[in-house]
Each structure stands twice: as structure tokens, then as C-alpha cells.
Amino acid sequence: MTKWNLEMVKKETVEFIRQCEKIYGREFDKNIKVEINSRLTSSFGYFKFQGKKSLEIDIAKRLIDSNLNELIIDTIGHEVVHYIMHELGYCNEKHGERFKELCRKLGIETISYGKWKNEVLIEQRNMLRKNIRENKKNEFYNKKNNARYILKCKYCDCAGFYKVARKDSMKKWVLRYSCCNKQHKDSLICYDIKENFKYEKVSNKLKRSKMTKEDKEICEKIVSKK
Ligand SMILES: [Zn+2]
Ligand SMILES: [Zn+2]
User: Most buried among 13, 50, 75, 148, by the most CB within 10 A?
Assistant: First the structure.
């Protein structure tokens, strides 16, 4: 199977638009901008517009890289339906009845995730979701293993990892950020494991001190924990 690329996505988009032209007996702009978007992570596609103006159809890079044929085509079709609905002036209906009707006519799965009927699509979607989850996990461990700064709550396991910091970053993290557990107040400590300094909040000010042996052990434990 050939690998998907932008040219193919564009071709498929135009193909869907042509089908819509036949259905509605009118023309739609086939030069709508089409992009492969690497920032799309939780959704597979995205239709961008501004007021009445249709701007762009984005397809997630993760989806394109997966080369899951049926799912890619279905997603392109889905975004084209958003585009056509927008052009017809039904901008506010999202996945309403008219949307679903056009999807049916084009032979693509209608929205509402989890209610899909096409088994190939369901399997491909689950596979991709799993891949995305694993990628994110790997990215997290990468970040963790390369971190110079560890921001940690002194009461629980809540922690963040940073490779670089600006001059005032520690101040912002320690004084303004908080633990994901809202009951843990003023509990964040920032460890600079390269310079062996720790930053904490003491009477509303940022206090810097040398890391103790215990601090070092805490940091080692966090980084090695999988
Ligand atoms: Zn949608
Ligand atoms: Zn906490």
C-alpha cells in the first residue's frame, strides 16, 4: 500500500467535494486549503473557519502516519462534510441531522464516537488511539529522563519535568503553580538536579538552598520510577 501524503489527502478531499457537487447540483470551491497538522492529537481532523469564510481542512499527522486507509478516507470525508455544511450556511449545526444525512449519502460513518457500526473503522480507530496513548507515554518518559528541573509536591507524587528554565521560571512554578490535589497548598518544590539547588516557597517568597542527601534521593526515586 502506498504511504499517505499531502497530495493524496488533497486528491481525496477534491473527490469528496465533487460528490457533494453532484448531490447538491452546485459548485463548491475545490481549492480549499488542506493541511496535515502535527499539533492535532486528540482529534483526527479539523475544519477551520472564520465567520462565514471557510479556511482550511486539517488532518492529523498521527492519522496520516498510521496509514490506516479506511479511517483516513472517512476522516477526510467527515471534514469535507463540515466544509460543505459551512458553505451551505448551516455553520451552527455541528453534527446535526443535515450533517448526518450528507454523511450517509457519501457512505461515510456518521459522527458520535463509540456508536460507529463499521467494524474496520472501529478497529482502526482503537488501534490509532492505542498508538497515540503509547506515544504520549514515551514522550513523557523522554521528558522525564532528560529533565534538569523536577517540580514536585512535598505531600504526594504529583510532579512535572522541565529541561530548560528561564530566569524567573522557578519563581513562577513554585509560587504560582499548585499540585493537582487542590488541598495541597504551597506544596511545590523545584529541584535543579544539575546545580543541586532546591527552590521552595517560604513565607510567600522563593527560597533557594542546597539540595540535601535526602532531596537527591527523592529526585533519583522519581526519575527511575516507571
Ligand atoms: Zn466533526
Ligand atoms: Zn500534592
Answer: 75
